[in-house]
Design brief:
Elements: H1 56-67, H2 71-85, E1 116-120, H3 126-144, E2 146-154, H4 161-169, E3 173-178, E4 199-203, E5 210-214, H5 221-230, E6 239-240, E7 255-256, H6 262-278, E8 293-300, H7 310-323, H8 342-356
Parallel strand pairs: 1-2
Antiparallel strand pairs: 2-8, 3-4, 3-8, 4-5, 6-7
Helix pairs in contact: 1-2, 1-8, 2-3, 3-4
């Protein structure tokens, strides 16, 4: 059976009509290896007719207020608008297409939450739920040393990078992953079992900060869909047809293969064990491409290990890595005064109008 031509992808998924699988490189604005991560041209933007600020900070503030979720709304808004500036719209505003704002995320932010918690987020805007869970990890990790949150009922939420970066900026180590419907075959397998199962990690601050956010599949589902639409061939060794045979024909693709063979397959399996088995994502009866999914977020406080020298070792590792010619993915946030393109402002203006409209009596 072929993958539907327009399913909602697993992982960093978008709405059901717009596949948004995670990028295959660290989602860092500073990554020179991927020109698609360069911010969109600032000169293309003008303030919206409604007076909406064209800057990243101002627009994120307005969207956060419209989402009516306090600090989680602001963090989610910033993450979505950064994706738009990085020319990754499938991780951006379209993920709020069905949002009504006003999500009650109080349970995720409870002060008395234990070190390990689990929440059903089916009734929440997924970007806001991820943001709230991220923010709540900070005091819990500082109090307990280690904290973990498992979420179920998650739809499209965008990139993990802004959220694990927030944990790193708070002095913690952050890790996150998500599972989904069966689209990626195990190494040596014939049909899909896992999703693209992205895995993200962040540690450190400033220039030494490292932010990694990668899919565990050979290519993203978005790349496969683009090949199908454009009539181009897939790379060798990234997909299988319905009979489990290798194919380069995107129209015949029934499953993706794991990145790097066995290594990527086992990394994807780790994500599945955490988000799907322990976290409960695989408990859902619907495991199709449009099903909601499980997420895990983990944070720990390295200072509680009793060794204050780890930042110096991190800096040395960065030096050695770069001295050897490697790219160090800092995940540096975009500047507050980065200017949103006119097209993004227009979409944001329409979204804000809908979110702030007074319901009919």
């Amino acid at each position: 059976m072929h993958i539907p031509s327009d399913p909602r992808p697993p992982g960093h998924a978008g709405p059901a009509t717009a596949p948004a699988a995670p990028q295959a490189v660290p989602t860092s604005p500073a990554n020179p290896a991927d020109p698609s991560l360069a911010p969109a041209a600032a000169s293309a933007a003008t303030p919206a007719a409604s007076g909406l600020s064209a800057t990243l900070a101002g627009a994120a503030r307005a969207l956060g207020q419209a989402l009516a979720a306090g600090e989680p709304g602001r963090l989610a808004a910033r993450a979505l608008l950064e994706a738009e500036l990085l020319r990754q719209p499938r991780f951006g505003l379209d993920l709020l297409a069905e949002s009504r704002g006003g999500a009650d995320v109080g349970a995720l932010l409870a002060d008395d939450a234990p070190a390990v918690s689990r929440h059903d987020c089916s009734a929440l805007d997924s970007p806001v739920a991820i943001a709230a869970a991220t923010l709540a990890l900070v005091p819990r990790a500082r109090r307990h040393g280690v904290a973990a949150t498992f979420l179920t009922g998650i739809a499209g939420f965008g990139r993990f990078a802004p959220f694990v970066r927030h944990l790193a900026d708070a002095g913690l180590a952050g890790m996150a992953g998500t599972e989904g419907g069966p689209l990626v075959a195990p190494a040596g397998g014939r049909r899909g079992v896992l999703s693209t199962n992205p895995l993200a990690f962040a540690l450190g601050q400033g220039d030494d900060r490292v932010v990694i956010d990668v899919a565990t599949s050979a290519i993203t589902l978005a790349a496969a869909k683009a090949a199908r639409q454009q009539g181009t061939s897939l790379p060798e060794g990234v997909a299988l047809d319905a009979d489990g045979r290798p194919t380069r024909d995107a129209a015949l693709m029934a499953a993706l293969l794991p990145r790097g063979g066995m290594v990527g397959s086992l990394l994807g399996l780790i994500v599945e064990l955490l988000a799907g088995v322990i976290g409960g994502g695989r408990a859902a009866e619907d495991r199709g491409a449009t099903a909601r999914r499980g997420v895990f977020l983990l944070a720990f406080d390295p200072s509680q290990a009793g060794d204050a020298e780890w930042p110096r070792r991190l800096a040395r590792l960065r030096h050695d890595w770069q001295d050897a010619g490697g790219h160090w993915p800092t995940g540096r946030p975009l500047a507050d005064d980065a200017v949103l393109p006119t097209e993004v402002l227009a979409r944001l203006d329409a979204l804000l109008s809908r979110l702030t409209a007074t319901p009919a009596p």
